[in-house]
Amino acid sequence: MSPLLDPSLSELGIEHGFGLRGDPEPARLERPRQVHGIAVHRVVSRGDAAGVEADAIVCDLAGVAVGVVTADCVPVLLVGESGLVAAAHAGWRGLCAGVVEAAAKAIRGPVLAAAIGPHVGACCYEVDAPVLDAVAARFGRELPAGALRPGQDGHAWLDLGSLVAAELERAGIGPAAVSRVVAPCTACDPERFHSYRRDGPRSGRLIHFVRRPEGGLAGRA
Ligand SMILES: [Zn+2]
Question: If you measure from the C-alpha of residue 118 to the centroid of ligand 1, how many angstroms do you get, rounded to a whole number?
Fold first, then answer.
């Protein structure tokens, strides 16, 4: 299968992809060891991300790709006007601690495009008090409409994607620069996606990447 593409990143001439089951790891990919935190690793020499604990990665090297892996969490790919690119991995823990905002800020200057990849949908993502507490602490009254649908016994169904969109807005990225790849829930589509919720700890991981262009951005000086 070919990775899913985001139209706005494609329009900018940025090589990228949201990986599906069985997709190979792209060439010259740098990715950190993910720990559900908020650290951003900046790649300044080849191979320097190996073993580094971080959940976002930004690339200073032309022609080099940065990426994250997921199984239900939200992958986010970012492109800055400077040509800098970044990838972030956002589950509820990292998201509520600020990893998306941290990734956006690691792009120096304006972010031209932010793409939110396939992730577990609210249909399959029932959460309990520790998650709801973290969401309330991070968003309070600014919780996006529809992000939470009440469930039973103090549980709720959570739409992580809308929280990521709210985090991008918090980082100063306007809605026009944000897109959500149209894809069903990762847990609902076993043909295309790995899912931790569905398959448990033995689940595989999807690989997502964005490559910093060799020259400038398409159509820009
Ligand atoms: Zn689902």
Answer: 11
